[in-house]
Design goal:
Layout lengths: L1 H18 L16 E3 L4 E2 L9 E7 L4 H17 L6 E5 L11 H11 L4 E4 L4 H6 L3 E2 L1 E8 L2 E8 L15 H10 L14 E2 L7
Parallel strand pairs: 3-4, 4-5
Antiparallel strand pairs: 1-2, 1-5, 3-7, 6-9, 7-8
Length: about 200
């Protein structure tokens, strides 16, 4: 009986270890580059940005209310930080069969409607979202160039109020960016991303 219980305990511990070591990027992880199709039809990779010091990567989409609520703030982030070496790179990874509004054609329309000043890339295979460990829209990542590496410095939410920008009390991403630009360590490097779940292929 003790042997059976011990075996069960070992199995449970093994499962916990597996679940406790996800592939999601965390602060300090080295991020991978990618080559994805932009709304202008061109293929874009982070390596194309020769003068960038890093990137504000956002996994977002067209239909999600949270993504829509944050669009103007994401535009503001690009306008504030692109000139300082950190442009926004927006990625849509949703399956269009589950969320038809998030088709490539829908992305083109949304980018024109909102006059996105940044690239809006289509992760049709969902490989990049899975590699980064993105689960929500929006899900934010700050990447900093360190030598030949892209090092994750922040992961999570933009701020603490998706409903009303005037009620925001904690600007997580902006604070992290300002600390990076000041040469400081990021004091809050991870928060919980709040938004709609990414619509994965093969799910409902």
């Amino acid at each position: 009986m003790k042997t059976i219980l011990l075996s069960i305990a070992v199995l449970c511990c093994s499962l916990l270890l597996i679940s406790a070591t996800p592939d999601a990027y965390a602060p300090g992880s080295k991020a991978t580059d990618f080559k994805l199709k932009n709304v202008d039809g061109k293929m874009v990779s982070l390596a194309d940005y020769k003068d960038a010091q890093g990137f504000i990567v956002t996994f977002t989409c067209n239909h999600c209310p949270f993504s829509k609520a944050y669009e103007d703030r994401i535009i503001g982030l690009h306008n504030k930080y692109a000139a300082k070496g950190y442009p926004v790179v927006a990625i849509n990874s949703n399956d269009k069969t589950i969320a038809p509004e998030d088709s490539y054609e829908g992305m083109i329309e949304r980018a024109k409607e909102k006059k996105f000043p940044f690239v809006y890339l289509y992760d049709e295979s969902q490989e990049i979202a899975k590699t980064y460990g993105a689960t929500r829209t929006p899900h934010m990542y700050i990447l900093k160039k360190e030598g030949k590496d892209l090092v994750v410095k922040y992961v999570g939410a933009i701020d603490d109020n998706s409903d009303d920008p005037s009620m925001v009390t904690k600007k997580y991403l902006e604070n992290a960016m300002d600390e990076i630009l000041a040469g400081k360590e990021v004091s809050t490097s991870s928060t919980k991303a709040i938004g709609c779940t990414i619509k994965w292929k093969g799910t409902k």
